Structures are given as C-alpha cells and as structure tokens.
C-alpha cells in the first residue's frame, strides 16, 4: 500500500506546494508509519487567512436561508459518509469503529443545531422605547475565526466549533491535531460538495508554528481551542494578548463518586465503560473512582470480572471493544504511572500490560501501541496517578470514608470538566449537583456530555475564557451584538433639544 500524503485545504482546494516540514502519521494498531502530513509555515497560514478574509466578506452577508441550505446539505453528506470518516479516524487514532462512528454522530448533532441558525440569530425588538423610537438587537459575524483541536476527537471536536462559526456567517480556519489529520480533509471536501463557497472553510496542518501564526495574525478575530491544560493556557494568554476573543478548553481529571447505597452492578458497568472506552483517551473519561466505604472491595471485584472479559484489539476489527493508544510515547507514559503509582503507595489491582491483544494478524499488530485496562487501588490524593491527567486506560481508586470527603476530593481537584455520582438517594444526588465545582455533572450517568443545544465546557483549569462550546454560548462566541435605536422623522419630532435624552 502506498503511503498517504495529507496536505492543507485552502480556498476550496488542496494545497499544491511542497512542504518544508512534515510529520509522520501512524497506524496505532501496527505501530507502522502509514503516511505524512504537511506542516504549515507562516506563509501558508497567511494564505489561508487571506482566502478566509476574502470569503468572509460575502459569506457574512448571504441570506440566512441560503446558509441553512448549505448546512442541511452538509448534514446529509456527513451522515452518508459516516463510515468513511470513522474508518479514517480508526486508522490514525486507533479507537474502535463503533466509537469513531459515535463521535461523528455527536458532531452531527451540532450541525443539526446549526441548521436552525435563522432562529438562533433572531434578535429582540422593542417598539416605542420612547415615543416614535424603536430599539432592536442584532448579532453579526466576527469575520475570520480559527479552531485548534486535539487528537482524541478528530471529527467531533472540530464539529463543536465550525458548524456554528460558519452558520453565524464567519469564515473558519481549522488546525487539527497532526496525529490524525485525515478526517478534517474529508470534512472539507464535504463542505465543498454541500455548496459552501471557497475560502469559508480552510484547514492548515502543523504544529506550534501554525498555531502561533494563527494566534498572532491580526485578521483573525477569535480562536477556539481544545487540548491539554498547559497549551490551553498558552493559547488563551497569547490569543488575548493579540486582541482576540478566545475560548480554550483544557485537560481533565474526572471523578466518579460511588455512594454506599449505589447499585454496584450499574456502577461497575459505568466505571468500566467510562474508564476504558476509547482507551481512556476522552476528555470526559472517568479516571478517579472515589468509592465511599464500605463498598470499595465489592466494587473492585465487579470491575475485575468485567475487565477480564474485555476484547482488546485493532479498532477496525468489529470484535474489538478497546483499541491501542495513539502513539508509542503516549502508551509508555501512561504505563509509567502503573509503576510510579505503586512506588507512591498504591496497589496494582489490574495490570493492563498483561491483557491479551486479540488480532487475526498478530505479526502485524505486534508493534501496536497496546496497553490494556489497569486499576490502581488505595490511591491517595498526593499520588501522581491521582494528581496528573493520565489520559489512558487507568482507573485510580480512592477510598473515601464519607460523602463529605468525596466532595472535598472533587472540589480540591484543579480540574473541573466532568464528574458523576452514583447513588439511589435523590437527596444526596441533589446536594452533590449543587456542591460540585465542576462544569458538567452526571447523576448515575458516567459521561455527562451535554447535547448540542446545551453548551459543553468545564470550570477551573479545564477552561480558559468564559464561554463554553456550542449551544447558545457558541452562537454568542462567534457573533457580536449590536443594539440599534431608530426614529423615523415625522413632523412632530420637536426640534432641537440639548437636554439629556429621557423617555417621553
Ligand atoms: P495538546 O494540547 O497536545 O494538542 C492540542 C492542539 O494544540 C493540537 O492541535 C496541537 O498540534 C497543538 N499544540 C500542541 N503543542 C503545542 C504548543 N506547544 N504550542 C502550540 N500548539 C500546540 O492535546 P492532545 O494531546 O492533542 O489532546 C489531549 C488533551 O486534550 C487532553 O489533555 C484532553 O483532556 C484534552 N481535551 C479536552 C477536552 C475538553 O473538552 N476540555 C476535549 C478533548 C480533549
């Protein structure tokens, strides 16, 4: 099979230049390099911004009905290409096919929400704020906006951003993760097929060079970012210093609190699904399991029974429930927490390094980036397996003695993305919903990702800026408001009056 080559998408077509630098693309299931992705220089980013700036001038003035028509067409195309997009994701990220198709489906929900843009952009109108004077509010596009996205959701996270940005009348430049860049180019082709004018959606690939060029470019009005906390902080500080509106979503350490009265089978199912799904490489994955005693021992036993039955293997194999990790370096880093966790006093109750890999071609998958589901027990709050975002298939069990201790752990965490409580006590759940200092809370739901018509985002070190993604907050982020006060002269307007305008 010939190696693939992924390049930028600028002004409605693939870039035809020769890249100064490229990155390797891997198949995580085999560990083999399968192709190369071009890395943009400042010049290529400038070219994309120039194309977007030109396109934004007319796209921002096009009727809402025409914008919605393009969005509806895009929705149909993404839906009919779901398997193709999912296969690209699996081949570069490693996640299993059903999971990859699931992320396309969740991204599509934002496209569907954006199809309602004529309604979403409706302003207010007040007749006769003063006699013969009316006021109304409108929201207008910003111009050119950029999105910088992580490796773990190469389709869904960009789709948290660009459907609404484009529906609001902006032109968009996407800088996807260099680790799994192909899905973004297929989405660009589908936009073109849907009838989006050239230059409204552009993709530049690359690393810090491309990101910095976007963050400092004077013609970019706003930046949406999703990724790790250190880079989110950097993007927020650099972008705002350059006068941009920035929303930067960072990393996470999501807790699942299990109270003694919880249904332990439900809790064990949820912990395994949310801890090990997508190999733990989800920003809403559960990584800290807070068991309020005396239920830790029976809960861990139930988790062990379930983990033993999990099928780990290539994402393209329909029998696999969990695929490999994204890179060899990331797999090694995640595995290192099993050793340091134990050195720092935890007990290794499940060692994922020994979990078998099921593959029809074991020679091909021998070099894959495998690590099975692992569980550290008796983890304390100072253990690095608890304080760090591991971002892999490792559950850290902290044994708490009371509800209050569990809530303290949740609220002392520097992160505030997601949290879940498992209990049959409605009063305790209600109190927890109120007390948890976290952006997204689940009650007997381990991964409480909001639907597209709500907004997604965390608190504390999981969000820099004050606006969450999609939903009405997304519409606000990609537009700016204007209030108009208007009077049409009639003969009784009253002539010159130097007094302060008051209602009359
Ligand atoms: P990352 O921060 O390494 O990369 C994110 C983006 O930033 C990529 O496009 C990358 O090319 C770019 N980037 C990386 N280093 C940079 C640098 N030094 N300067 C400028 N740009 C740089 O994140 P990742 O490893 O791709 O993704 C995993 C992380 O994303 C995890 O921390 C996860 O929690 C987080 N995440 C958060 C959410 C959320 O909603 N809060 C969602 C998904 C992922």
TrEMBL record:
Gene3D superfamilies: Aldehyde Dehydrogenase, Chain A, domain 1, Aldehyde Dehydrogenase, Chain A, domain 2. It is an enzyme of class 1 (oxidoreductase). Keywords: NAD, Oxidoreductase. It comes from the Bacteria. GO terms for biological process: L-valine catabolic process; thymine catabolic process. Pfam families: Aldedh. SUPFAM superfamilies: ALDH-like (SSF53720). Its EC number is 1.2.1.27. Residues 15-484 form the Aldehyde dehydrogenase domain. The keyword Manganese does not apply. This is methylmalonate-semialdehyde dehydrogenase (CoA acylating). It comes from Trebonia kvetii.
């Amino acid at each position: 099979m010939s190696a693939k080559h992924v390049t930028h998408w600028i002004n409605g077509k693939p870039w035809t230049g020769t890249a100064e630098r490229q990155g390797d693309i891997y198949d995580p299931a085999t560990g083999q390099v399968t192709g190369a992705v071009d890395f943009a220089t400042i010049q290529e980013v400038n070219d994309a911004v120039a194309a977007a700036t030109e396109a934004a001038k007319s796209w921002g003035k096009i009727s809402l009905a025409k914008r919605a028509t393009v969005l509806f067409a895009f929705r149909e195309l993404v839906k009919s290409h779901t398997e193709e997009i999912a296969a690209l994701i699996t081949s570069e990220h490693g996640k299993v096919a059903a999971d990859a198709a699931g992320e396309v489906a969740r991204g599509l929900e934002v496209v569907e929400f954006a199809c309602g843009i004529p309604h979403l952009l409706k302003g207010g109108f007040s007749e006769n704020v003063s006699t013969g004077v009316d006021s109304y509010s409108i929201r207008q596009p910003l111009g050119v906006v950029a999105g910088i996205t992580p490796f773990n959701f190469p389709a869904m996270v960009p789709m948290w951003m660009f459907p609404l940005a484009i529906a609001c009348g902006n032109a968009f430049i996407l800088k996807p993760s260099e680790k799994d860049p192909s899905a973004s180019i297929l989405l660009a082709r589908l936009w073109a097929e849907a009838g989006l004018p050239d230059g409204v959606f552009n993709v530049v690939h690359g690393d810090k060079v491309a990101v910095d060029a976007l963050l400092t470019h004077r013609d970019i009005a706003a930046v949406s970012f999703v990724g790790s906390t250190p880079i989110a902080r950097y993007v927020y500080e650099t972008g705002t210093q350059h006068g941009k509106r920035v929303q930067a979503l960072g990393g996470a350490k999501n807790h699942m609190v299990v109270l003694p009265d919880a249904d332990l089978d439900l809790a064990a199912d949820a912990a395994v699904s949310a801890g090990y799904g997508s190999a733990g490489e989800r920003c809403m994955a559960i990584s800290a399991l807070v068991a309020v005693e005396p239920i830790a021992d029976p809960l861990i036993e139930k988790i062990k029974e379930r983990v033993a039955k999990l099928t780990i293997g290539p994402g393209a194999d329909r029998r696999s429930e969990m695929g490999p990790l994204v890179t060899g370096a990331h797999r090694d880093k995640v595995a290192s927490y099993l050793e340091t966790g134990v050195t720092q006093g935890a007990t290794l109750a499940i060692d994922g390094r020994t979990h078998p890999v099921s593959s029809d071609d074991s020679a091909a998958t021998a070099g894959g980036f495998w690590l099975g589901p692992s569980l550290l027990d008796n983890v304390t709050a100072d253990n690095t397996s608890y304080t760090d975002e591991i971002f892999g298939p490792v559950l850290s069990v902290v044994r708490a003695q009371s509800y209050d201790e569990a809530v303290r752990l949740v609220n002392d965490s520097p992160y505030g993305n997601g949290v879940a409580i498992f209990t049959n006590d409605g009063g305790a759940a209600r109190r927890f919903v109120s007390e948890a200092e976290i952006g997204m809370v689940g009650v007997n739901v381990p991964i409480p990702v909001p639907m597209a018509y709500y907004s997604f985002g965390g608190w504390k070190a999981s969000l820099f800026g004050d606006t969450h993604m999609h939903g009405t907050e997304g519409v606000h982020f990609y537009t700016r408001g204007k209030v108009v006060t208007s009077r049409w002269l009639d003969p009784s307007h009253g002539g010159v009056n130097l007094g302060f305008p008051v209602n009359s």
